[in-house]
Write a structure and sequence with these properties.
There is one protein chain. The chain is of the alpha/beta class. Among the domains are: 103 residues, Methane Monooxygenase Hydroxylase, Chain G, domain 1, CATH 1.20.58; 248 residues, TIM Barrel (Alpha-Beta Barrel), CATH 3.20.20; 48 residues. It is 41% helix and 16% strand. The chain is built from 24 helices and 21 strands. Strands 4, 13, 14, 15, 16, 17, 18, 19, 20 and 21 form a 10-stranded mixed β-sheet that branches. Helix 10 links the parallel strand 9 and strand 10. The protein is globular. The two termini are 54 Å apart.
Length: 661
């Protein structure tokens, strides 16, 4: 390339960089954007279960079921209430109406299905405390569930104490799972003495001896269940919870051993429940039918052995359709609640009717399904990093490296039919410029020019890629490589641990400006100093995607919500970088449509989280005060400056662990 050609290329480059709009900022539809487009893009009607909508003003709404029908409240009204109460983002928002509605729907759907199928047994729901152990959540479940005698499942002594002190109805069941020592069994037997219906589910053969011993000591006959290990395998993430290698449950050999020991002790009449658990979040209804059919054979043969039985506990597994796809993928399900209930009843009735065995009381321990919709993580966006090319110096420096000349030439000859070649050339010459920089042949400014030109090329290739018939994987991946990073005021590890640990997909979307078209493609980074502290898997309008469409920031605070996080996320969170529990707020919508703030819990202070890791705040303050006093004595600061420092230190100990504006 001669000097005249080089100069012409540079001039054309400067014009191109200034003229071409960044990828993603042009209209994607070609028509005026509406809130219906927002609903389709973010999938609220697919995963929202009718609980979430979009107002004509472009704000997300919660559609709260009440005794007078559904009442819609905009999230912006909720956020205004948070601000008035001095509750900064991030906030874990609990929507109480949804808990009430889920418990009601579960119990009433089973009741209707029982009537339709002429099933001659009852249904009793049980909530596993481990799914969300927060005090206010358990209290609300107990209160809303009282009219259905909805019970609790306890897998530890601590959870049993919660159940014993919280359930208002003695008709509600308490199912004791997990490993049990003498104290655990003693607590349950005492609860049984005062009228609670307690079931001890035997997990291992050794437990039966302890149950019999403590029962004899207190002269209380226990209600015993046995957890069987089915051979049925399930689909989805928790498939290892099922089958022969599942961690929990009794084998057929162990089950016979327990039956014989109960018979020898003249206590076989205490064996009244069959329990099994195929796994959490079962996506395929066929797995459920197969598991129930297999479990029925155990139930039938235990009756043949002389056990009275009467209770059939399916454990958990009722899935949440997190991505709204209605599929057998791990984040979804291919059935609804009515089909779930009908199929279970049909399997049990059909199997037992052949043997003339009475229909048992059915129990499910549906935790995820009950509380997932209840909680929404709200957080604000603090900053955005984009990968847009900057305007280049005009004119470009003389004598630039040959690799930069080649990048200019590549940019000036981009065509749809040669996009793959253009991409290959851009990456090659960019890497040549980087190597020359390492060898000292390219200056820092020149390297910046090379990177900027390459970025411009990538944007142009991404813009033209839809015109290709069969774009390659490398071309399709460019859009993700150029996506923005929106930094959110939250910690993935604290508030969304399953998104990090098991690649759980949660619906994420803005809660305002939904009447505007979102023009940016982004991933979301959190506040932690960890590359895993990000969200890069999202619900899409056709398939799950690696980027989320968001709005360009303006002067208004931009807030996002992460939905369906009521199950496990509040319990499993950790203190990565010492970001603690967020502020928590429970709201209720009255039958007249009024928003009520019924429960507020301040998030952890810095002093709180320091004490969790054995740093005592007062001791830390004392050590810093001594340091500051030494500085005063050495003349490095004045006494008044020392007081300012100590005041700031003390205020920080009492402050929120998250970003405060």
């Amino acid at each position: 390339m001669n000097t005249e050609q080089q100069s012409a290329s540079k001039n054309r480059l400067s014009q191109r960089v200034r003229r071409d709009p960044p990828v993603g900022e042009t209209s994607t539809t070609g028509t005026a954007w509406t809130v219906e487009d927002a609903k389709e893009l973010y999938g609220t009607e697919r995963w929202g279960m009718g609980y979430f909508g979009v107002s004509e003003s472009g704000n997300l709404t919660v559609n709260a079921p009440t005794t007078r029908g559904v009442q819609a409240i905009e999230f912006t009204e909720i956020m205004e209430g948070l601000q008035q109460r001095g509750l900064n983002m991030p906030v874990m928002l609990r929507l109480e109406n949804l808990v009430d509605d889920r418990i009601t729907e579960l119990n009433e759907t089973f009741a209707r299905a029982i009537q339709e199928a002429n099933y001659r047994g009852d249904y009793r729901g049980v909530f596993p405390i481990k799914v969300n152990q927060q005090s206010h959540v358990i209290s609300e479940i107990a209160r809303y569930g009282e009219r259905f005698d909805h019970g609790l499942e306890a897998g530890s002594k601590a959870e049993l104490l919660i159940a014993m002190s919280t359930l208002p109805s003695h008709e509600s069941l308490i199912v004791c799972n997990g490993y049990k020592d003498a104290e655990f069994i003693d607590l349950g037997l005492q609860a049984q003495r005062i009228g609670f219906q307690i079931f001890f589910v035997v997990e291992t053969p050794n437990e039966i001896s302890l149950i019999l011993e403590r029962s004899k000591h207190w002269d209380v006959e226990p209600s015993i269940g046995v957890r069987v290990k089915l051979s049925t395998k399930i689909d989805g993430h928790w498939s290892n919870d099922s089958g022969d290698r599942s961690l929990f449950g009794l084998s057929t050999v162990q089950l016979i051993e327990i039956v014989d020991r109960l018979r020898t002790a003249n206590m076989l009449h205490c064996l009244r429940m069959l329990h099994f658990h195929l796994g959490s979040q079962i996506p395929n209804i066929r797995n459920i039918r197969d598991g129930v059919n297999e479990a029925c054979r155990y139930y039938i043969d235990l009756i043949a052995e002389g056990a009275p039985m009467g209770f059939f506990d399916l454990g958990g597994g009722l899935a949440v359709d997190y991505d709204g796809s209605g599929s057998t993928e791990g984040h979804s399900r291919n059935y609804d609640l009515h089909e779930y209930c009908v199929d279970i009843l049909d399997c049990v009735a059909t199997s037992l009717d052949r043997e003339n065995i009475p229909h048992p009381t059915l129990i499910t321990e549906s935790g995820r399904w009950t509380v997932a919709p209840m909680s929404v993580l709200l957080f604000n966006i603090l900053e955005v990093t984009d990968f847009q090319p900057h305007e280049l110096p005009d004119p470009l420096p003389e004598g630039i490296h040959q690799s930069i000349d080649c990048l200019i030439e590549t940019l000036n000859h981009i065509t749809t039919r040669r996009l793959q070649e253009n991409l290959n050339d851009a990456i090659y010459y960019r890497d040549e410029a980087r190597k020359a920089f390492q060898d000292g042949k390219v200056s820092l400014r020149e390297r910046a020019i090379a990177e900027n030109i390459c970025l411009t090329i990538l944007h142009k290739i991404a813009a033209q890629a839809p015109e290709m018939r069969r774009p390659s994987a490398s071309i399709l991946s460019i859009k993700d490589q150029l996506s923005d990073i929106y930094y959110g005021n939250f910690s993935v590890f604290q508030s969304l641990p399953d998104a990090w640990a098991i690649d759980q997909i949660f619906p994420v979307m803005p809660v305002q400006r939904l009447h505007e078209e979102p023009t940016r493609h982004a991933i979301i980074g959190d506040l932690t100093c960890d590359c895993d502290g990000q969200l890069n898997k999202f619900v899409g309008n056709q398939a799950n995607t690696s980027t989320l469409r968001l709005h360009e920031l303006n002067d208004e605070e931009y807030c996002l919500g992460v939905f369906l996080v009521g199950a496990y996320q509040e319990t499993l969170g950790d203190f990565h970088n010492l970001f603690g529990d967020t502020n928590v707020v429970s709201v209720r919508v009255s039958s007249e449509g009024r928003l009520q703030f019924v429960h507020e819990l301040k998030g952890d202070s810095i002093g709180d989280v320091l004490s969790y890791v054995e740093h005592q705040p007062q001791e830390i303050y004392g050590k810093f005060r001594s340091r500051a006093e030494e500085a005063v004595e050495a003349g490095r600061i004045t006494a008044s400056q020392q007081q300012e420092m100590l005041q700031l230190f003390d205020e920080s100990l009492r402050g929120y662990t998250y970003f405060e504006s």
